Amino acid sequence: MSVENLKNSLPEYAKDLKLNLGSLARSTELNEQQLWGTFLACAAATRSASVLREIAEEAADVLSAEAYNAALGAASIMGMNNVAYRAKGFLGDEFAQVRMGLRMNIIGNPGVEKADFELWSLAVSTINGCHDCTAAHDAVVRKEGFTKEQVWEAVKVAATLQGVAQALVVNDILANA
């Protein structure tokens, strides 16, 4: 099992991440597609090859091909949008009404339930540190009926996977020092 491989690869100082990873993989707040789509999108957003490899393997056993592709699509499109929307904020009021001018067709037609895609986009946006995108996707999923507990579960997946990726990088650096 891939989550088990990640847990086993973490050093002792990352015990909390091991515990969090295990409990999140058994979440009851999100359905299976929502949970594993969040795991996959966030694994891609961490930019860690080992985290993505392990999560992708397990997600492929759970998600339909459409959901698998949509989760990776959420990570990809948010990789672009989070940079662009943060830049608009950095550049100030003069850029507030500037047309984005970037293709984002997958947001309108993700191949899965729009609410699930929006949840994955929210989780990726938290990893990428985009306040505007996180808030905008939260508003959409809440309007679609997601509870604050479900939203927070997706954020916990994002936070934990980012922590796992960081711990693995640190461990590799120290092992090769």
TrEMBL record:
Q: Boundaries of each Carboxymuconolactone decarboxylase-like domain copy?
A: 94-169
Provide the coiled-coil residue spans: none
Q: What class of enzyme is it?
A: oxidoreductase
The reply to whether Ribosomal protein figures as a keyword in the UniProt entry is: no
Disulfide topology: 130-133
Give the source's domain of life in one word.
Bacteria
The EC number of this protein is: 1.11.1.28
The record's section on SUPFAM superfamilies has: AhpD-like (SSF69118)
Read off the HAMAP family from this record: AhpD (MF_01676)
**What is the similarity comment for this entry?**
Belongs to the AhpD family.
Entry function: Antioxidant protein with alkyl hydroperoxidase activity. Required for the reduction of the AhpC active site cysteine residues and for the regeneration of the AhpC enzyme activity.
- Tell me how this protein assembles: Homotrimer.
PANTHER family named in the record: ALKYL HYDROPEROXIDE REDUCTASE AHPD (PTHR33930:SF7)
* Protein name stated in the entry: Alkyl hydroperoxide reductase AhpD
- Species: Rhodococcus xishaensis
